[in-house]
Design goal:
single chain, flat, 1315 residues
Length: 1315
């Protein structure tokens, strides 16, 4: 370690102000230095010491300066009690005051908080706060320092106390010393072994001590010979510098080891600072001088073969194994001056002793060192080496030999200065030293011999030297950068190379060395030119293929393959030396190259060792066979050499050349074997023909069991592997070419080339084998060719082909094969599988016995492709109505789940029609059939009611969900009220649809059992329904929301004046879970409705068209009259009540006669009254009059229907089931066809009735859908048809039949199904 003074400056005295340098600080990037000198703040350029700024902000002496961690501002404080904040451009931006002079400043490294210390308080200021927070202290603050994480600050007080506080100023620990604490500093970097912050405290009792954040002492206290005034750490935290009254700057390790003096001045050193991330130190003295030093840390290391030791942090020694990259650290806890390594020994020189270490075990890779000796003497030397039992000290021209006990045993005085010394090995206590002198002499000294031996004398000074592994050659690098290599036996210069600064012989090969120079690495082997590559550093070792290079203070291990040297020796056919070079370290490809070249040169021993290195078993096996065959012969004939060369070439993949060599050796059969194993059949046939021409009997090996290379169960292949020999060919296949074809087929099958094997079997006429192979590999194009060649009798093979074609979906090929088989049923199944229904039905027409098996798959295919109407017809033809019902049920469920409620209503309507059209099961008794028909009719109306509910709910759902609506408030109100009255009725049941459908599909016994179970369940549930129904709606169909219905009902009822109904709806909403966004509005509306009258407007109350009873809005009887039970018939586009009354002809009048009577024209009716008189009542008396219209004052005029209706109403008993008005023939004849609406459900099923309705207000134009039987206002009905071209309920497209008195034949029963 040494120091260099980079620059210095002396601040002149100005007037009354002293030029003492009280404080120094670096800018965080190290580019500037701020100095507190007199009453000014000086800014220096850190590189060259130029004064950049002289700032005059203070009126009194400046005592302290500090730079913020981000480098954008710095602060200064002094005797004028002011703290000034400056920008990095030397511009003052802020100042604040204390009551006492400012003694020290410190910026928090994390938060940029500035701490200022005075004689009485501690100030904390940050840019984001307006005022300075101050805390009282008991003594003057002389120094302060933040931890690197900014969480704690240490204060050094004049009273001798060290106060450790948090970032808010609260005291956490107190350390008591005996004298003022003038300086302290936290170590900026924590160690891995002890991750804690360490505080260095300089006390004016001339001590240096260390503490933790907790106040606990860390390490021992160090006694100084002066008063410490300033301390600062290097950025790495490994060292700190200390200055004070001793007028010296000292360097210490982080553990408190004094490493030496960096410089000495003529006066006290008040301040020191370390340049960030550099080894520069600046000091400020009492005499006003500012000095910048550069600390140069020298490299102290030692190397022996693959063990390298070097100094770290000046006090530790690290031993590195250059091959395994293992590292071991030895903590010496003192300044390490010299290091020496030899075998298992390590010597470390400290200032007052030398430590000797030894490896614990004999393992060459062991890295555990233990201390075996201490030589407690102070030595002065320039070089240190160690042997097994001695250390050797070099002092200019003198070498001294000391034992491990510190005894001087021998001394050598040489003629010139010693420039290089190295231990070259030897027996213990007889080791030899290689010494290079400045006069150019190279000496060899043995530790047990007092007389040096001169090896070489040359004219230039020695810089570096090394001895070869056999000690026969010496390499010397002189001061002129020349490498000179000498033969020690003859003392002759063998060769020299320029541009060398270091050299090292390979420790495993005599003729190989490496040297470096001019940023190049050169490897020289024997007399060949050196191989060069780029390298930075010095070569210090060469072992095998690893070169050890020292670059500055780091040792690098470079793997250098010896390929270049290997190639040169192979070219010279020097296989022995080439093998030794390869053993140093080459790639697998280089080993293979050496082995093959040696094998071709018939150097079997070298080839065997090389192949063993790369573990090539095939070539080793080849060598074993060759040596077994020719091992006893001293020399080989020409043909034998050709055979050996051919086999080697075959192993290398050079088959053409190998075949040529086989032919030269007259071994054509081996060429045929080789190409047969390679599956190169054309070449094999060629060489077989060549062999026939040359040796006519040679091909017999392929067709008989004669002796020869192909004889026996197995033959040795030319590639060194045993392969089974195919069985002898049949006598008729007696040609070589034909035998090779069959072998080719068998080998192709073994190798997995099944297509080629199948084609060859097909050529040979082996159809079964060909079919099996083509089926296995799914080669349908080849398989159809086989099918076309097969006769019709090969049914098994044709069936195999058909199965393969169907699996691969090759239906045209499958059809061709089936036609060849003549199997009609299988052909129809093929058409169904390929969805070619037209062809399937065409075949079924020709073969009716197969028709039944087509309809069910066809129906499933139609349903899968969304052709539901066709699927229904197909299910019926397949006699599977259960599947038809299941399909519609799934569509219904999906529509509900997907919120397509109009579609769900249409599906429920379709489901009800399909339910009543299901044929009865076989085996039913008349009584069971009657009960089944009754249940089917009930289920029909139940499903019809479900369809009505979902249809009505679709408007409510659209009203709630969609942002805009075209519905009038009255329509929404009527729709919601209709839904609530239906769902709240006790007659409504939420029975699952699946149970309703099962009753139509059960057998006789199952139907009987199910009937009793249903009756029992209904009786058990009657009591619960009365309690659970009403207006609670505990059961609703899937997908229907009570909240939506009540919300729409409440909102529209409130706007229309039905306040009683609205209050009920809002009360129900209070107990239901509503969307959070609605809750506030509902609460407000619930409060507002209580201010209204508890009644509904009279014009909103419905009046029964039969009994003229005014009904309440809420009715739990399926939206019927509370008096007579007549259902309110609503239009299904608006849901307002229509003036319709249901009637039914007397039981003795057939339906057809009733329809004819209704259809009579008015003039036809007049003809039936022969005398023209008409009976009526007027004034309470019965009157007969001519038919000229009603007279004034008539009660009811002459309308017999009204009279019948009023008479039936007068006899109605509340509580009895509702029955329509019964009318006779005369009344039927009186009815006008335009006023009567007939809904004939018999067209769907004979189980369903015909329903009759009369309009009580003919002026109201009403339309009825002849398909679904729902009523509409004529105008809205026609508008809907103009828009959608169909009935909104059932989807029927027939508008003409919707007018009363009209019927249209051949119209569809329902609209097509859709998703």
């Amino acid at each position: 370690m040494r120091t260099v003074t980079l620059w210095q400056d002396k601040v002149p005295e100005r007037e009354k102000w002293s030029n003492c340098i009280w404080s120094i600080a670096f800018k965080p990037d190290g580019s500037q230095i701020i100095v507190a000198a007199g009453n000014r703040v000086l800014v220096y350029d850190a590189t060259d010491g130029d004064l950049v700024h002289s700032l005059k902000g203070h009126k009194e002496s400046v005592f302290c300066v500090a730079y913020s961690r981000h480098g954008k501002k710095f602060a200064s404080g002094g005797a004028d009690k002011q703290v000034i904040i400056w920008t990095h451009k030397a511009e003052g931006i802020l100042k604040y005051n204390h009551n006492e002079s400012i003694q020290c400043l410190a910026y928090n490294p994390v938060t940029q908080q500035l701490a200022s210390g005075t004689a009485s308080d501690l100030g904390l200021w940050s840019p984001e706060q307006k005022s300075v927070s101050k805390r009282k202290v008991n003594s003057k603050i002389l120094s302060m320092s933040w931890t690197n994480d900014g969480l704690h600050i240490a204060l050094g007080l004049f009273s001798g106390h060290v106060s450790i506080r948090d970032k808010f100023g609260e005291e956490k620990a107190d350390i008591v010393r005996q004298s003022p604490i003038w300086t302290l500093a936290w170590n900026p970097v924590q160690t891995k072994t002890d991750p804690t912050d360490v505080l260095v405290v300089g006390c004016w009792d001339q001590t240096l001590s260390f503490y933790k954040v907790s106040g606990q002492e860390y390490g021992r206290e160090h006694r100084l010979e002066f008063d410490p005034c300033s301390v600062d750490f290097f950025s790495s935290g490994d060292y700190f510098v200390l200055g004070g009254s001793g007028k010296k700057v000292q360097l210490w390790s982080r553990e408190g080891v004094l490493l030496g003096d960096l410089g000495e001045r003529d006066d006290w050193i008040w301040s020191v600072a370390v340049r960030p991330r550099q080894n520069n130190v600046v000091i400020g003295c009492n005499d006003g001088s500012v000095v910048m030093y550069q600390v140069v840390f020298s490299t102290v290391h030692g190397l022996y073969q693959d063990r390298y030791a070097y100094r770290d942090v000046m006090t530790d020694v690290i031993i590195q194994h250059l091959v395994t990259e293992q590292k071991v650290r030895i903590r010496c806890k003192d300044y390490v001056k010299k290091i020496a390594v030899y075998k298992d020994r390590l010597a470390v020189q400290l200032p007052d002793k030398v430590l000797i270490y030894e490896v614990s075990h004999d393992d060459p890779l062991d890295m555990h060192y233990k201390n075996i000796e201490k030589i407690k003497q102070r030595f002065m030397c320039s070089l240190l080496v160690v042997t097994t039992h001695h250390i050797i000290l070099c002092q200019e021209r003198k070498l001294q030999l000391y034992s491990f006990h510190g005894v001087l045993e021998r001394e050598w005085n040489l003629d010139a200065l010693i420039r290089y010394i190295k231990v070259v090995g030897g027996a213990p206590q007889r080791e030899g030293l290689l010494v290079g002198l400045k006069n150019g002499h190279v000496m060899k000294i043995f530790v047990d011999n007092a007389f040096p031996v001169t090896l070489i004398k040359q004219a230039t000074a020695v810089r570096c030297l090394d001895l070869s592994c056999r000690r026969k050659k010496l390499a010397v690098v002189d001061e002129t950068s020349n490498l000179l290599v000498y033969d020690l036996d003859s003392q002759q210069l063998l060769y020299q190379e320029p541009n060398a600064n270091s050299v090292a012989w390979n420790t495993e090969m005599e003729d190989m060395l490496a040297y470096s120079g001019s940023n190049m690495l050169c490897i020289k082997t024997g007399s060949f030119p050196p191989h060069m590559q780029k390298l930075q550093g010095f070569v210090v070792g060469f072992k095998g293929s690893k070169i050890f290079c020292l670059h500055y203070i780091s040792m690098q291990t470079i793997d250098v393959p010896q390929s270049a040297s290997l190639y040169r020796y192979i070219e010279k056919k020097d296989f022995e030396t080439a093998y030794r070079v390869a053993c140093l370290g080459v790639t697998e490809a280089d080993w293979r190259l050496l082995a093959l070249d040696a094998l071709q040169s018939l150097r079997f021993d070298i080839a065997r060792k090389a192949f063993i290195r790369i573990r090539d078993v095939r070539y080793i096996d080849l060598l074993n066979r060759i040596t077994q065959q020719y091992g006893n012969k001293s020399s080989l004939t020409h043909e034998e050499e050709q055979l050996v060369t051919a086999q080697v070439l075959a192993f290398q993949g050079k088959y053409s050349e190998a075949a040529q060599h086989f032919s030269r050796a007259k071994a054509y059969h081996m060429a045929v074997e080789m190409y047969t194993e390679l599956r190169k059949w054309d070449e094999a046939k060629h060489w077989a023909q060549q062999g026939e021409k040359a040796v006519p009997r040679a091909p017999a090996a392929l067709t008989s069991n004669a002796t020869g290379p192909m004889n026996g169960d197995k033959v040795m292949a030319s590639l060194g592997e045993e392969v089974p020999v195919p069985p002898p060919l049949m006598p008729e296949e007696n040609t070589v070419a034909q035998g090779l074809i069959l072998k080719q087929a068998a080998s192709s099958e073994e190798d997995g080339d099944l297509r080629a094997a199948g084609e060859m079997y097909l050529t040979a006429g082996q159809h079964r084998k060909a079919v099996e192979i083509f089926v296995k590999i799914s080669a349908v194009d080849s398989l159809i060719e086989v099918v076309r060649q097969l006769p019709n009798t090969e049914t098994q093979l044709l069936q195999m082909a058909v199965k393969a074609f169907r699996q691969q979906q090759q239906f045209s090929f499958a059809k061709e094969a089936i036609v060849k088989l003549g199997d009609v049923g299988q052909l129809i199944a093929l058409h169904m599988e390929s969805h070619r229904w037209d062809e399937a039905f065409q075949l079924s027409n020709q073969h009716p016995e197969y028709a039944a098996q087509i309809y069910l798959p066809w129906a499933e295919w139609l349903a899968f492709n969304d052709r539901f109407d066709d699927a229904l017809d197909a299910y019926k033809k397949a006699k599977r109505p259960d599947l038809s019902l299941q399909m519609i049920e799934k569509l219904t469920h999906n529509a509900v789940v997907e919120r397509r409620f109009k579609d769900a209503a249409n599906y429920f309507w379709r489901l009800s029609l399909e339910l009543v059209s299901v044929p009865p099961p076989e085996g039913l008794t008349p009584e069971q059939a009657l009960r089944r028909n009754q249940r089917l009719e009930e289920n029909f109306w139940e499903l019809r009611r479900r369809a009505d509910i979902y249809y009505a709910y679709s408007y409510i759902h659209a009203y709630i969900q969609e942002p805009f609506t075209t519905l009038l408030p009255e329509n929404v109100f009527n729709c919601a009220l209709y839904l609530w009255n239906i769902l709240a009725s006790s007659a409504f049941t939420a029975q699952p649809v699946g149970q309703l459908l099962q009753e139509a599909q059960t057998t006789a016994s199952e139907a009987e059992a199910r009937l009793f179970e249903r009756i029992k369940a209904e009786q058990a549930a009657q009591g619960q329904q009365g309690a659970s129904r009403g207006h609670l709606l505990r059961e609703v169909p899937l997908g229907i929301s009570r909240v939506y219905i009540l919300y729409a009902l409440a909102k529209q009822a409130q706007s229309l004046g039905a306040f009683k109904l609205a209050r009920m709806a809002y009360d129900k909403l209070q107990v239901l879970r509503v969307p959070p966004t609605w809750q506030h509005q509902i609460d407000l509306s619930c409060l507002a409705i209580r201010s209204k009258a508890y009644s509904d407007q009279d014009d909103l109350l419905p009046v029964c068209n039969w009994c003229m009873t005014t009904n309440p809005l809420l009715r739990s009887n399926l939206d019927s009259c509370i008096n007579c039970g007549h259902p309110f018939l609503r239009t299904f586009l608006g849901f307002d009540i229509l003036p319709l009354v249901e009637f039914y002809p007397d039981s003795d009048i057939p339906i057809e006669e009733a329809l004819k009577l209704i259809a009579l024209e008015p003039n036809a009716r007049a003809e039936r009254n022969s005398d023209g008189w008409r009976e009526s009542t007027r004034g309470g008396a019965e009157v007969m009059s001519l038919d000229q219209g009603p007279m004034p004052g008539d009660e009811g005029g002459t309308d017999l229907f009204v009279q019948k209706m009023l008479d039936a109403a007068s006899y109605f008993v509340p509580g009895e089931p509702y029955t329509p008005v019964r009318i006779d023939r005369e009344t039927l004849a009186e009815l006008r066809p335009q006023e009567v609406y007939t809904v004939d459900f018999r067209k769907f099923s004979s189980l369903l009735p015909v329903r009759f309705f009369r309009s009580m207000i003919p002026e109201v134009a009403i339309a009825v859908c002849s398909s679904c039987g729902n009523f509409f206002h004529q105008e809205t009905w026609e508008l809907e048809f103009l828009q959608n071209k169909c009935c909104p309920y059932c989807g029927s497209k027939d508008i003409d039949s919707a007018r009363p008195g009209q019927e249209k034949k051949d119209k569809p029963l329902y609209a097509p199904l859709s998703i």
